[in-house]
Amino acid sequence: MLLGSNRSPSVSLASLLNHHNTANLQVDRNSLTGQATDLLREQIIGGRIPPGTKLIEREVAELLGISRMPAREALMNLEREGLVVAKNSGRYVIQPTQTDIEHLYQVRLLLECLAVELAASHATPEFCRALQANLQQMRDAIARNDRAAYVRSDLEAHQLIWAQAGNPHLQKMLHSITGPIFLFIATHTEFQTDWTETLQLHEELADAICAGNPKQAAQSMREQLENSLQLSLRVFRNPS
């Protein structure tokens, strides 16, 4: 799959993140590559390192307080996950095109409907409590009009479901597919005008899963993803 090739102006990572607490980006040297990958993924999907940003290995290493080898490995991990694209001039955060988004949703629809069916088949009280707590975080984010927090909680809700599905291969594929999608959503929240509608879709999905109804859970997920796709396509229909 070819991802968009437009670039944003050359800006250092430190300047992009200067409004955030970069002390939290320092990693534990006992697990450098994994932690560096997780931290960079969070910053990218959260939209704090925007699409088109050039990721220079030296800058990444300096920002995270690690050597260049784990920084390079972290960037390679993100490339495999679809969040970073390698070009002759270096590595860049992806800029998904309309075709990319449509193709990603096609695959996501198949995989995530399977995931919710599996999760509904063996939902536990502990899992349902965690899912409800996550939904409350989404409600709180709406009340604060905190779009970034809502998107983070949205992703966390889906990740809870993938884990409950109990299939690590499915979980890995969903991580790869949805990373670019959530990056896109996080950087275009202005096209989401009714957050309560998407929250209601999440609540209906949670109810179906925790009721142990795989068929209804899959239907709820299908409706949620179709709604999300249409919202995403508004970006291309109404370019700024």
Automatic annotation (TrEMBL):
Give the signal sequence positions.
Answer: none
User: Which residues are in the HTH gntR-type domain?
Assistant: 30-96
Which SMART domains does the entry mention? Answer: FCD, HTH_GNTR
Keyword annotations for this protein? DNA-binding, Transcription, Transcription regulation
Q: Which GO terms describe its molecular function?
A: DNA binding; DNA-binding transcription factor activity
Q: Which InterPro entries match?
A: GntR_C, TF_FadR/GntR_C, Tscrpt_reg_HTH_GntR, WH-like_DNA-bd_sf, WH_DNA-bd_sf
Domain of life, per the record?
A: Bacteria
Gene3D superfamilies on file: GntR ligand-binding domain-like, Winged helix-like DNA-binding domain superfamily/Winged helix DNA-binding domain
Do you know which PANTHER family this protein is assigned to? GNTR FAMILY REGULATORY PROTEIN (PTHR43537:SF45), TRANSCRIPTIONAL REGULATOR, GNTR FAMILY (PTHR43537)
Spell out the protein name for this chain. GntR family transcriptional regulator
| Organism (species) | Litorilinea aerophila
